[in-house]
Specification:
Chains A, B: Its cofactor is FAD. Chains A, B: This is FAD-binding oxidoreductase. Chains A, B: Keywords: FAD, Flavoprotein, Oxidoreductase. Two copies of one chain form a homodimer. By secondary structure, the first copy, chain A, is of the alpha+beta class. Chain A folds into four domains: 88 residues, 2-Layer Sandwich (Uridine Diphospho-n-acetylenolpyruvylglucosamine Reductase, domain 2); 118 residues, Uridine Diphospho-n-acetylenolpyruvylglucosamine Reductase, domain 3, CATH 3.30.465; 115 residues, Alpha-Beta Plaits (2-Layer Sandwich); 95 residues, Alpha-Beta Plaits. In chain A, 37% of the residues lie in helices and 20% in strands. In chain A, the strands form four sheets. A seven-stranded antiparallel beta sheet of chain A has the order 15-12-14-13-17-18-16, with helices on both faces. In chain A, helix 1 runs antiparallel to helix 2 and helix 14 runs antiparallel to helix 15. The interface between A and B is large, with 83 and 82 residues.
Chain lengths: 458, 458
């Protein structure tokens, strides 16, 4: 990169907030994707304002410098992995929860704020931001970029259902505001929704208005072992249609449960005998502002699960429940520690989960590999750890599993995104007419192709 | 229009399904906008399949024929008002509810199906499609085009929160599918969300996958007269934060209540004395699968309203509640019958409603006109009937009211859309950088500008 360009970047954010060469740590070279090799950028800039972001983009556009945005780097698809010749904009200094507005039940947040920070600030107001991916160190900006989901999506929806407005900087340097503190608007194309999930390729988000919910006073967690995975899947629509509105509805297969139990030293009180006869577990979270109503919902849910073949239903106490949920959140780390070669999150209609899982297992066996997993059963979002050392075989296995998901009416990813890790599969499997349209939309935002080139598509 | 082009359209849909000249009835010349003059199209085509829609668009694009889509024509902004030189595609024959899928809790619907039809089919399965604008004769395709909202949006969200996937025909003739029977997906830009609310300017929707909810067994409606509008507005966030999750939360000002009561012969049991001391009413709908829980929520809601200054709280019986809700739905017709010159639906953060309403009244008085209204109080979505005969004064009044809404952090329209009726105001008040971006997005979809030219912007 030209020295004059670097000097201009330094002028914009200040010398101390611009990193080059040896001052760039390994952290900036990667996110948590298991398959994207780390790659350091030429420059890291840490802006403090939207105006600085705008000046950075204008300069980058003028010199054809590729730009990657980075929140906490906890993404799983390589969307925050920078280009060697590029500028990495780290939002670590734009990390404030600017406002928690109890009357309108919204918070105004900078992109670098973590979910943990937002959780703390909203809890103090008796409110909650309900998007709850496994990683509370994730930045709000990152969750917008990837349209993050997580366990509570079954009740509250994913990021796109919970973001009401944005401030964003276009690659042309213009700063726009979309949406606002309102839950509806009908004035032209919804730019908020278009930017959410665009993985840093359309605009850089500098402020996010999120929707908050009242925080229910009481919650409970039920754990039910099932001898058969199909029964787990059959229980899911029954629980949903019962109207108890669970905020967590997760399945965990026996191998994953063994791994997370071991790693996190979980004591769930499940006897060896039951455990050995269990193919998968269902974890159901319930919440209510009223203790009696919660008890009624627990009873009803336990009845449904027993009717549908659960060998038992355990009511976890607060501490046990928290530990189990935290362990489930760490399933990715457990898979990584166990030597998983990749982690994917295909989404299918929930009726298709048993068939899809069976097909994925068959494909893995045929490829001399294995899949184990857990997932957001209420959403049909299956998180699979892929074990298959041979790179070429693994590529074909992934292709076939993604194709099976699409054939079942689903998509390659429910919440992790495409990033760099899955773009080859996306290019191979997505409708060419849609791909061409996505490229034209990209062009409408970013005519010089400076924002995250090589993410989503080449 | 060239005879050869008309002949080609006839070949595509069949002679009997193509109308020209005197065979085109007045209905096809308009929607329910109060300010857009009727205008008959050159041709009306009634396709039966997406393939026919595709062939119509390919032909239209080849000959530069402007195309307008029409569902039931119940829109309020002129988005379905055709061009004199254009083709109107009426979806009246593509009107089937193709599937109600109870396991995945979705329905697959053709765009010409009415909400009434969808209501009937989903009710039979114990489910509900919860988007509930005033007009049940509205087509599903029309509600997608305008991102329709309605009373139940306070609990269930608007159209964009309840549509999971689309089949759509691009102006280039390509038929694409977006989303699916899943509640989440993270694979590139969300085309479903981009097409929703685009008022027929980006693509023509030929199939819609909507989200369904369990239908609660019990419901109740409370009516509370308040001596002061500000107290109504103060009660709204309190009811929402109480956690009772009302599915209806409407305010109706005294003049509107008088008009709809008179038109619909409502007997609400409110004494003359109370009525004369009332500035506005709050209508709260509650629902639950459990009768006891519903009773508890009613009590809680009544307490909150009494504490906040309601002169009384009436529990309406089933018949009375239905009549009131139906009457409220017909507020537009009451306004029209009363000689309203326009009807608008500015949305503001709900905390800003009192200030915005006061400002709108001041502006109307200064313009020697008047505003009366009702609205979705939980959403900050204010429906105002505008009385101001002088066209120039009215134009300025609307401009000033829209500007006041935007200044309060809101938008010109919460659910009616921009269409043709408000595009001048949209052009004058929207950020030019955003308008330019919307035009580039339009260009990405519709390079020949054949879909609804003159809607949203010129």
């Amino acid at each position: 990169m030209d020295d004059a360009v670097v000097a201009r970047f330094a002028e914009i954010v200040g010398e101390s907030e611009l990193l080059t060469g040896g001052r760039i740590s390994e952290d900036y070279a990667r996110d948590e994707s298991l398959t994207c090799e780390p790659r350091k950028p030429a420059v890291v800039a840490k802006p403090a304002t939207a105006a600085e972001v705008s000046a950075l983009l204008t300069t980058a556009a003028g010199h054809g410098v590729p730009v990657t945005a980075r929140g906490s780097g906890s993404g799983l698809s390589g969307a925050a992995r920078p280009r060697e010749d590029g500028l990495l904009i780290s939002f670590e200094r734009m990390n404030a929860v600017l406002e928690v507005d109890a009357v309108n039940q919204v918070a105004v947040v900078q992109p670098g704020a973590t979910l943990a920070e937002l959780e703390q600030k909203t809890a103090a107001a008796g409110l909650a931001y309900t998007v709850y991916p496994g990683e509370l160190s994730a930045s709000v900006g990152g969750t917008v970029g990837t349209n993050a989901g997580g366990m509570r999506a079954v009740k509250y929806g994913v990021t796109r259902n919970n973001v009401l407005g944005l401030e964003a900087v276009l690659p042309t340097g213009e700063v726009i505001r979309t949406g606002g503190k309102t839950s509806k608007v009908s004035t032209g194309y919804d730019l908020t929704q278009l930017i959410i999930g665009s993985e840093g390729t359309l605009a850089l988000v500098t402020e996010v208005i999120v929707k908050l919910y009242p925080r229910p006073a009481h919650s409970a967690t039920l754990l039910a072992p099932f001898p058969d995975l199909d029964n787990v899947m059959a229980a899911v629509p029954r629980i949903i249609s019962s109207g108890v509105a669970p905020d967590i509805l997760e399945y965990i297969d026996n191998l994953t449960m063994a791994a997370i139990s071991h790693n996190e030293k979980l004591e769930l009180g499940v006897s060896d005998e039951v455990r050995d006869a269990t193919q998968a577990y269902l974890v159901v979270g319930l919440e209510n502002r009223d203790r009696d109503r919660l008890d009624g919902d627990m009873l009803r849910t336990a009845e449904v699960m027993s009717e549908l073949g659960a060998s038992d239903v355990y009511v976890l106490d607060g501490g046990g429940a928290r530990k189990l949920i935290e362990a489930r959140e760490k399933a990715f780390w457990a898979a990584k520690a166990a030597g998983a070669d990749d982690v994917i999150d295909v989404v299918v209609p929930r009726s298709e989960m048993p068939g899809f899982l069976a097909r994925a297992r068959e494909l893995a066996t045929a490829a001399e590999g294995g899949v184990v997993g857990c997932g957001h059963a209420g959403d049909g979002n299956v998180h699979l750890a892929i074990f298959c050392k041979d790179a070429a075989k693994r590529h074909k296995l992934l292709h076939d599993i993604f194709a099976a998901g699409i054939a079942a009416g689903g998509a390659i990813s429910g919440e992790h995104g495409i990033g760099q890790a899955k773009k080859d599969h996306f290019a191979a499997l997505e409708d060419p007419a849609k791909l061409a349209l996505l490229r034209r939309v990209k062009q409408a935002f970013d005519p010089r192709n400076i924002l995250n080139p090589g993410v989503l598509f080449d």
